[in-house]
Amino acid sequence: MDNRLAFLRTVAPFNLLPEEVLLGVVDLLQEVRHPRETLLYQQDTSKVRSLDIIVEGKYETFFYDSQQHKRLPEVYGPGTCYGGMSILLNKKRSLRTVIVHKGTRVLQLARRDFRALCQAYGPFFHYFTARYGERMLNEEFAHFVKPVNPPEQNFLVADQLFSRRISTVEVRELVTCPGSEPIYEVARRMAAAKVSCLFVTDTDTGAISGYCTDITLRDSVIARQLDAARPVADVAATPLVSISQDAFVYEAILLMFQTKTRYLLVERAGEYVGFLSRNKLLSDLAQSPFMFIQAVKLAQGTRELKRRWQMVPDIVNQLLSRGVKADIVNQVISTVADTIALKVIENVLAELGPAPAKFVFMVLGSEGRQEQTLLTDQDNAIIYEDKANEQRELVREYFLRFATAVSDQLNHIGLHYCSGGFMAKNPKWTHSLSHWKRNYHQWMSESNPETVMQFATFFDCRYLYGEASLMRELQEFLRQELAQPLERFLFFMAKNALQYEPPLTFFRNIRTFAQEGQQVFDLKKAMTPIVDLVRVYALQHQLLPTNTGERLAGLREQGVFNAKETQELLQAYYYLMGMRLQKQARQIINDRTTPTNYLDPTSLTQVEQVTLKEIFKVISDFQLKIKVSFTKSL
Predict the structure, then answer these.
(1) pTM above 0.90, yes or no
(2) Which residues of 588-612 are buried (b: 16+ CB within 10 A; e: fewer)?
(3) What is the pLDDT of residues 266-313, one digit of tens each?
(4) CA 86, CA 94: separation in Å to the nearest integer?
(5) 532, 229, 205: which is closest to 365 by C-alpha?
(6) Closest CA relative to residue 551, chosen from 571, 565, 531
């Protein structure tokens, strides 16, 4: 007994227990010897019935990948314990595969006794949870441990294909012309209306008698060298195929394949009210988010763009459920938002007429970083080329009208106005290139805590539409400015990165506040220090990419962060991002409520809580680093 007691005093975390408790633990231990090498546990399958304390020999532990290759091997030797994390945090299943070597001797503490110790002695319990949290910051470890949920039923197929009626689908407006219209005039009409199909009417009755498509023009006119002045009735295709708006979507698709037609006329009460395009309908129903983005590009009008944006939460939920990484989901959301904004910009330009000067429509903040969530608003600005004095007011007046129209349409679609007013419709943020250069110069050379906090978002600016050379010129100006001594500017940027502390108490609990009857913390504010500190280092080293992941990669290449630091920050940031996106998607889908960034930690699993605490510790450590590097204080 004396030997076991002396041994336990050297084993973490038993060395944290009071002497009288250790004496009691000694009586609970059972000795087990392994005379030969044996496969003891299989990862995520074998039940762990005891905490194994190795006295002699060793446990060889690892993960098997899908190819049965050993990954992340780790040896547990004398004086170490195996099984604690598995019992507490993996539903009593072994986290790893374990091979016990010949001649190994272990002392086993039964699972119920181990759990009783954890409940009675916090430091003993936290030893295992802290180790687990540290391991979860390793992306490869987290990959093997994270449970793979079965993919949810694909909403696009289940909802739109079999249960949706054509009346709920956006049908295209009919573009028609009489059969006597010259072929070249028909081609002009199609180009102006941006349609690939025009319906031909009978000259006498006005009834639709055929149709003309891009393929018709190619095969029946150009390929045959037909005179384009001939009437379109000479080449109009038949037969016409139609379907009731009360039919199901899948019926329309089947009919298209059966009749080998690319276009269906839609009927309501005996009249044609529009048509369906096979390519567009199939892109609507495709499972890939990239096909969904293509469907956004094909959308006609703000009504359809609004419907598309309302579908994004379902896609986000589906992607996350299938294990798609949060940074990729961010890119999908941002690409959809970009595509919608581009459609709106093009439509407004068509309405207002050509711009009087070259310009760039740029996006800022989370959109500029391509890190949008489902709780997003507009952040944008306009740069236009410098013009002579007599034209300045006219040019400015046009772009403010243009920006207001764009912003109003985006707001109607669901990309809401920025509460802080960081939009091009605000006269403060639509300026000539020379004015923007003065802005940036002033922010950097005359910086103070207020201006740095207010205008940090403008250092996350990204080109979206217009004359790219204007954006390149502004970026080159920024690079030159950043090459100057900017200690004061970087000092205040660093102070800005320190304003939000991770919500972790002195006793390593998650700090919460009351919100609508719950104790919650703010996920967005928890993530903000990572965005801010990475931005500071990127600006110091004249790195102009805006995405947080890309900035970290650039800083790693320059040796600012080592591989471990880079990985920890990436893992921490995108773990929080995934949690934030999942919560927002479920609020919209399941609760039908406006998404928020608030999270009740008691709604999380123990594994998630432990991982969060370790992430908050990582953020605190990096804030300390930035404090020392830029503010010269502790």
Answers:
(1) no
(2) beeeeeebbbbbebeeeeebebbbb
(3) 999 989 999 998 877 766 665 556 667 777 888 878 989 999 999 899
(4) 5
(5) 532
(6) 531
